[in-house]
Amino acid sequence: MSARRTIPAPIRRAVSAGILIAAVTVLGACGSEGSPASQGAPAGTAPAAVPSSASSAGSASPAPSAAAAAGATLTITDPWVKTAPKGMSAAFGTLVNPTDTEVTVVSGASPLSPMIELHEVVESGGKMIMRPKEGGFVIPPRGTHRLQPGGDHIMLMGVTEAVKPGARIPFTLTLKGGGTLEFTAIGKEFAGGKEDYEPGTHAEGDKGDG
């Protein structure tokens, strides 16, 4: 029987170290394919996803419509309501449009009246009459539109509570496109504006207070 050969200790240590280095190299190569560590992210975390241009566009808030933007900036100066014991009254003021887009008021509402119309005053048969204004009130870009006795105004019908001097009456105007303008008008005495309604437009016998 031949004598058993003994490998010196320095050689055994060198061989073990080489095997260990090879194992680490293999494991490192496996982890380099798409792993967070290979991309500089902390271990155990995934890299942040970068949204595509399509998803970014889909998640962006839509730009407000021209009418909605106008509704946020349309104002009215010196709004007031004609005092009245009951029945009918009218509201006035100056609509101001500071935007670059035409704004149209299409309707109005107030807790003071169950029925509100946008009116104009025109001459008919030698007298002045009031009638609903077709198309509403149009305020030009960077312009104004005056609501006044004897002209365009907001007509309130079916008023059951007296409108007294100093009364504060809330209004909401609806704009073409869906925007709104809310304001408070002050009750004021006014003796003018006795125009008649256009025959057939309202109940027989109604007289205007605009």
Automatic annotation (TrEMBL):
Signal peptide interval: none
Region annotation Disordered: where it falls in the sequence: 33-64
InterPro entries assigned: LpqE-like (IPR007410), Lxx211020-like (IPR058248), PCuAC_sf (IPR036182)
Listed name of the protein: Copper chaperone PCu(A)C
Source organism per UniProt: Streptosporangium longisporum
